[in-house]
Structure formats: structure tokens, C-alpha cells
Write the C-alpha cells for this entry.
Amino acid sequence: MEFVRSREVDAIKARLDHPVIDSDGHAVEYIPVVAEILREQAGADLAERFLQVSSSADLMRDLTAEQKRDARRHKSGWWAVPAANTLDRATAMLPALMAKRMPELGLDHAMVYGTLGLAVTVLPDDDLRRAVARAFNTYYAEAFGEHRELLTPVGVIPMFTPEEAIAELDHATSVLGLKAFVFGGPIPRRHPDGGTWLDSLCVDGLYDYDPVWQRCVELGVAPTFHTAAAGWGSRTSPTSYVFNHIGMFATGCEAMARAMFLGGVPHRFPELRVAFQEGGVAWAASLYSDLIGHWEKRNRNAVRHYDPSRLDRPLIASLFAEHGGKLFGERDDLDAGLRFLSNSDDELADEFAATGVETRDDIKRLFTERFHFGCEADDPLTALAFDQQRMPMGARLKAIFASDIGHWDVPDARGVLPEAWELVEDGLATEEDFRDLTYANPMSLWVGANPSFFEGTSISPA
């Protein structure tokens, strides 16, 4: 079968003086092969447990909404991969076919994330999680081994403990030869009472994850996060996947980015480059603006404006006496009335200490240099990344092109480049912005972490 580029894709490529890097395509794993690898590496028992977990969604389908609600199960994706477009379904499952179609799609290189593999990072069973992560990473290395020129597989790193993360990271890089990874986070932890809480890893975490970030720097690895927030907060509908899915990745990515920034990770590890995938950039624009706003009002100096010890007690007492009337002025409990939101614990004063931020410019520099944001082709809000008139301090955020090929929101893989180009056609972005989206910002992420990242691939400096 021959795959010929459309006139539309040809016309776009003719306008570009740079390669197009897809920083978030997807493979749909062939589960029987993963199970075979797991059986060889960890034994039949864990392989069988993995197959039960991978088919758990099927077991829920016969339950009523009330039974699902009682089981505390939110509705997950159901018809979620290509079907009517059989060629795209096979493309997501067969790396050789995906590589062959890359010129047709107008893509020069693709970072390929898994699908079921993304769920590995939240498996609560320690033995199963670690064994399945190793099996998936082996699968990605073997399945994509002959196609690394065009496709870079993305391994999975579980993060329930720093030790397990470093162990898998070392094995996947040194033994399997992988160089791109998706990390778990935030991590669901269990309370003794059976409930759960979300560990952001960077603020009030159960463990110190700095050794993980340090190992990433040493290995030239850019941590990426593909955090799904289904099951969090209001996204717990037992009947509506759409209700749970809208904003899901944005919520998960925002939680991780907020924790990393306030936890001081970009400050302590200046060489680290990080990406938050599939949530777009609108949430990042909001977070960036909020960080500046909160810092301006609550940095270690500005927050003293609200220090209870600075309240002029005689003055406020006289104001109550003069203007309080019968309801407020004739009372002897003024101290009790002034305690509200006036904790006098001085050690809580500097909540930005870990960030290393001293000025607004520091926030801009850390946020816009270190963080990268995966934006799908059909997302018009990607233009916010380049809208310096509206972004505080004229910032440009590092949006990176993310096709999401292989999943339900891409009905035809041949349309992803034209959809992304609509930003230019509709006047929402310039051709320079498009270059940043599809080339310069991906290079900032991958090459910024590892200068030799694209050696031996289809990508060369443009």
C-alpha cells in the first residue's frame, strides 16, 4: 500500500523551512504481546493479574449506574480508538506502518506515548506496578527498535517511591536504550481509613523526589507528565465519560506544574526541562498569571501587610466605638472578633521560599524557559501561548505540537497538520509561532535536556 501526501499537506510543508516534530503521538499496545513479555519476566501470576486489570473496564459495563456509584468507579473511555478508520487503528498498533506513513502525514519525527501504559503509573499494587512498567518498557523498546529514525517511543516511570523511579529509569535507559519517559504524578496514596489523597511529589510529599530529578539531569531525560484527573473531584460520574474527560488533562497537568514550581524544582535543577502533555496551554496561562499575582501579594515582604501584629488596636477599637452602633460598638469581645484569618505563626510567612523567586522576572524566566505544554492540533487556545499582549510581562509560553494520533479525538491522522496550521490561516498565530510550536519548542524540550537526543534520527538542525 502506498501513502501519498495530500495537496493540503504538501502546500503546508512547502511553506516551512523546518521539520515538524510531533511531541505526543500515541501507540495502542498489543496487549497479548505485553502479557507474554510480563510472563517471561515476572511469571504467570503477575501476567494473569495484569490481564485482569487491563480488562477491568469490560467488567464494569454490565453494572447499573447505582452499582458503579457504590463501587466508586467513574466511567472511563469506551469507544476510544479508531474503528471506522481501520488504517489509523492499524497505524497506532504497528510501528512499521506508523513510520511508513510519517511522510504522508507531514511529520518528520514523532514521540510516541503508550495508551494502556499510561495507567501503569497509578497501579496501587507495588509488585504488579513495577513488573508491568518493566514489561511495557521492554515492549516499547522492542516494538520501535527498528524505527527510531522516525519514531521515539516514550517509556513509563512509576513514582510511588523515588527508589522505584530511579531503578526503572536506569534500566530503561542503560539496558533498553529508551530516552524519553512519562512519569507518574500526582500519586494517589491511601489513608489508613481506606480513603485516598493526592501526593504532588513536590509540596508536602511523602518522600523527597530530588534524587529523581537529579538522575534525570544526569541522564539527559526531560520528565513529561500525561496526568489524567478522571476520578478526581467532580470528575467521578459513573455514567458520563465526557463529563469526566473534559478538562481532565488540564487539571492533572496544572496540579503537577503548580507543585513543581512552588516546590522549587525548576529553581534547584536549572538544567531540567519538563513537559505537561495533552492539556493545552490555557491552564498554563492561568497558572502563570496566578503565580505572579499571588507572589506580588504574598511574597515574604508583601505578606507582612497582613501581619496581625501590625494592626493598630487602639485605632480599630476607637473606630468600632464611633461607627459600630449598638450591634458592634457596645461589646467587650473585640479580640475574639479579630482572630479570624489572623494566624500569628510567623513560620508560615514565606510560602515562596523554595521557588528561589526574588522578582516577577524570576517567575517569568522559570516558567517560560523550563516548562513545555502539549497542545493538540484542534485546540484554538494554543494561540494564547504566543499572545504577548495578553500574557503578563509579555511572556511566550512553550507550546509544543501534540497530534494525539491513535486516539478517538483524531478521526483521520492525515488531518492533524492541516488542523494545526489553521492557527496561521485564521490569523491566530504567525508562521514564526507555528515554527515554535512544531520545531523550536520541541527542540527546547528534548535537546534542552539532552543535546544528542536526535542523533541518528530524521531530525537535523534547521
Q: What stands out?
A: The longest strand covers residues 151-157. Residues 7-297+354-449 form a domain with the TIM Barrel fold (CATH 3.20.20.140). The radius of gyration is 25 Å. The chain has 20 helices and ten strands.
